């Protein structure tokens, strides 16, 4: 089975409203949303591909499609309709000495119809001196 690399280091920039904070946090709502946005925006997302390939609902729709174009459309619609969730437990793995960067991990779920696939995902949250925060997700294999 061929392994696919997912998610180059795609940064997402956030603006925080609070100044003078101790630094970026792994478990903020903005960070969580950014992680989900990075993964869901990846056109070659192995997590959602896995869920779609193992969904009996998607398989039934593909099997009832008569042309190759219709089958591809079923796959694409299933992928686009996926829902994502970053689990409740987010771990802080390390924090830089200057408190401006933190590495984190948590379980990300992708649901396509009747199948949910999960994968541990690692990400980094960095805060620039101007308060701008960027989130990047480390590539993972599934």
Question: What can you see in these coordinates?
Answer:
With 142 residues, this protein is of the alpha+beta class. Helices cover 30% and strands 37% of the residues. The protein has helices spanning 29-40, 46-53, 56-64, 68-80; strands spanning 5-6, 11-15, 83-95, 101-112, 115-127, 132-137, 140-141. The strands form 2 sheets. It has a 5-stranded antiparallel β-sheet. The chain has a two-stranded antiparallel sheet with strand order 1-7. Strand 4 (101-112) and strand 5 form a beta hairpin. Helix 3 packs antiparallel against helix 4. The longest helix is centred in the middle third of the chain and has 13 residues, at 68-80. The protein starts with a strand and ends with a strand.
Question: Which SSEs are present, and which pair or pack?
Answer:
Elements: E1 5-6, E2 11-15, H1 29-40, H2 46-53, H3 56-64, H4 68-80, E3 83-95, E4 101-112, E5 115-127, E6 132-137, E7 140-141
């Amino acid at each position: 089975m061929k392994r696919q690399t997912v998610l180059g280091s795609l940064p997402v920039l956030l603006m925080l409203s609070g100044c003078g904070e101790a630094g970026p946090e792994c478990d903020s709502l903005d960070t969580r949303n950014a992680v989900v946005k990075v993964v869901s925006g990846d056109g070659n997302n192995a997590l959602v591909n896995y869920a779609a390939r193992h969904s009996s609902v998607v398989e039934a729709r593909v099997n009832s499609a008569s042309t190759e174009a219709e089958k591809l459309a079923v796959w694409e619609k299933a992928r686009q309709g996926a829902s994502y969730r970053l689990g409740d437990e987010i771990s802080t793995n390390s924090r830089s000495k200057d408190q401006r960067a933190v590495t984190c991990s948590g379980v990300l779920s992708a649901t396509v119809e009747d199948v949910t696939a999960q994968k541990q995902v690692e990400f980094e949250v960095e805060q620039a001196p101007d308060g701008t925060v960027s989130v990047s997700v480390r590539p993972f294999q599934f």
